[in-house]
Amino acid sequence: MTQIDQFESVFRAAAHDAFEYEAIAFPRVLFVTDGNADQSKAFVRQTLDYATNLKNAEIELVHGEEFQTTDELLEKVTAHHPDLICTYRNLHSKAWKFRHSLGEHLDVLLQRTDAPVLVMPHPEAGFANLDALRETKTVMVMTGQLVNNHALVNHAISFVAPEGELYLTHIEDKAAFERYIEAISKIPSIDTDDARKHISHQLLEDPLNYITSCQEILKEKGLSLKVHPLVSFGHHLTEYRQAVESHAVNLLVMNTKDDEQLAMHGLAYPLAVELRQLPLLML
Amino acid sequence: MEHAVTHASHGTTIFFTGVLILLIASLALEEKIHAKKSLIVGLFAAALLLLDGALGLLPFGPITLPNGHTLDMPVYIEAIDWGVIAIIIGSSIFVDVTSRSGLFTWIAIKLTKLSCGDPLKLLWYYGLMTVVFSAVLNNVTAMIIVGSLSAVSLKRLQREEQLLGFLLIEGLLTNIGGLLTLISSVPNIIIGTTAGISFVTFFLKASPYVVVATGATIWLGARLFNIKKLSDVDEIAAAKQHVAGFDENDGIESQGFFWFGAIMLAAFILVIATTSVLPVVSSLGMGYVALTFALIMLIRYKHEVEQFYKAVDWDLIGFFMALFVVIHMLEYAGVLDLIGQGITWIIGEDENRFGVGALLVSAAGFSSVTDNIPLAAMLGKILAAQGTAGDSSLWWSVIFGANLGGNLTPIGSASTLVAVTIIHKHKLKLSFGGFVAKALPFAAMHIVLATIYVLVFL
Questions:
Q1: Is B251 part of the contact surface with chain A (CB cutoff 8 Å)?
Q2: What ipTM was estimated for this complex?
Q3: Which of A153, A281, A177 is nearest to A234 (CA)?
Q4: Residue B425: its chain A contacts at CB < 8 A?
Q5: pLDDT score recorded for residue A129
Q6: pLDDT number for residue A5
Q7: How do A165-173 and A251-254 pair as beta strands?
Q8: C-alpha–C-alpha distance, residues A168 and A43, integer Å
């Protein structure tokens, strides 16, 4: 009954997953810093100058004198019930000098709160004058699973400055793909060349169709941003680093939560650790 | 072809009748004995040839051609109805190549989108599509196309709980659609060609029943399986959005080939329908038409025609060829005469209403537990041997009974078997008894309607 499967495949391929647009707003924004109230004002101001979509939000602040432990921080954040948290790496720590961690506060905050977190470069790291921190003109979504990731794309759209650009990237892990093809090459009933050709095509086709639907729907809604696809095979970190550099990205948007594990999403952590000069929106 | 007539003894006829019963039982238990039909019937054919030959029942020797020439041809070759084989091979290749144009999937997806995802509309559209595809293509292909689309679209609409009902109704409708034209099912081809019923006559006589039975089946199916129209505004919007994601053009490799496929399909139906009145073509027959259309379609894939040859159901073809040989051997052994006497006992010497109805019901009963093709082939041969007139209702009793009996059990027809395969593929539970229990109201309705129709209108 292989014909049944053939026709089911034809119909499944014809059923494209379409993007579902939803306008995202952040009425209550909570800033979390490790400085005192006065020192924190500069950080708040700089962030609001950068992310103009937050201009009309109700701004709240939890400064460094109000918490020391992660428990205390989580308690404060829960009490404020924000729609967005703005902070930076290595709170109450000097480890921001090293490209090895995000700091215990941010680690826990990302996993234990429902609100998305905008992670700005550390105020003392000297990135404040970089072009990347001027405006959110170029926003990039990074994921290994773009299709049906409506929330991620909608959050990214909410940050794109007027007439800005949105890059939707989907990088298929080349190493994992080669492992599967290697396994297929040992199965006599499956043609290896055929499998390579069709699987690679389909893996890239689905996100491309999704991005096309995103372009169509945003045009239909009258939004002025330009949406570009970046879909390819590669090594996640390498490809993403190159993409960020070559497109002068101002904001990187990614998922951090993983239903399968308590720690941060596999791809998000190394990217967040390495790309320290770039603001990150982490869901 | 010239045949020497050799009369078998009563004991020989009884013995060969026992062999026939054994063959029918083997076919009914095909799944249990894990052997393909072509092998089962092929082995019986080989054994019967040897037995008939050894008992002196076979007329060996050259056959005389229409031009007076004689030709040495083995008896197992002349026994086969090559016209039927040509129709089956030609039309299956034609349908296979045409389906590559994306035409059938385009129609299927267009109808899905037209339904806006409403389950009741979807059931009506898929039901009508099943009937039309069964009539134009063949029952098995129709079931595969509509059944696989039902599985994909209902999953997308998050209505998997309705899949069983959809598949069961579609499976039953394939056998209704299979009644629409002379080439819609193999029993139709066999009986139609034996009785000399033209394509147009067949269509005109069968279509009113098909229309009524289709409407009644979908209506009853919607009630029994609780498939209702959407009324909630949010549900309507969500369903519309889900089916809007289907792209009907996704399966189309080339617009040119798509339109070529559509035009060729229309031309195929037209030429098949008018074969009996077209000069020269009428002598060459429908098999010639089917093979020629298949060859024209194959031009598109001229470098890879072998993949279409491989896709032909050679088990089915082998089954037919062996079956014709078996029937031929049984004829020499006097079995067909014996069954003919039994049928005459049931239906009476002269054609009467009771006989016509009894033949329809008993043909349906037999066809529900075994393949309807040997049944049609055997009854066709018996009715022809009895000199039954081409316009007799008895032919229609066999056609309706052989087609509709398949709806009583999951093994009654190849297309209901496909429906059950899709049902099991999607992990839906349906036993043999479960199928019979769910299908019985439909099958009973079909047979009662058919009996009334044949008795009153044909």
A1: yes
A2: 0.72
A3: A177
A4: 1, 4
A5: 58
A6: 80
A7: unpaired
A8: 29
| CB contact (8 A) between residue B250 and residue A3 | no
Query: Looking at residues B155-184, what average pLDDT do you find?
Result: 92
Residue type, B428: L
Residues of chain A with pLDDT under 50: 1
Distance of CA B74 to the CA centre of its chain: 29
d(Cα B355, Cα B351) in Å, to the nearest integer? 7
Among B111, B141, B144, B242, pick the best mutation site for testing chain A contact (most A Cβ within 10 A): B144
Task: Give the global pTM.
Answer: 0.74
Contacts of A210 in chain B (CB under 8 A): none
A141 Cα to chain B: minimum distance (Å): 23
C-alpha torsion B155→B158→B164→B169, nearest 10: -90
Percent of residues, chain B, with pLDDT higher than 70: 98
Please write the tens of the pLDDT for every residue from B88-145: 889 888 888 888 888 888 888 899 999 999 999 999 999 999 999 888 877 888 888 8
Q: Taking a C-beta distance cutoff of 8 angstroms, is the pair B397, B359 a contact?
A: yes
Per CB-CB distance under 8 Å, the chain B contacts of A14 are 105, 109, 246-248, 250-251
**A4/B152 CB distance under 8 A:** no
Based on the number of CB atoms within 10 Å of its own CB, is B18 exposed (0-12), middle (13-18) or buried (19 or more)? exposed
Nearest to A7 among B148, B244, B248 (CB): B148
The nearest CA of chain A is from the CA of B126 a distance in Å of 14
Distance (Å) from the alpha carbon of A163 to chain B's nearest alpha carbon: 28
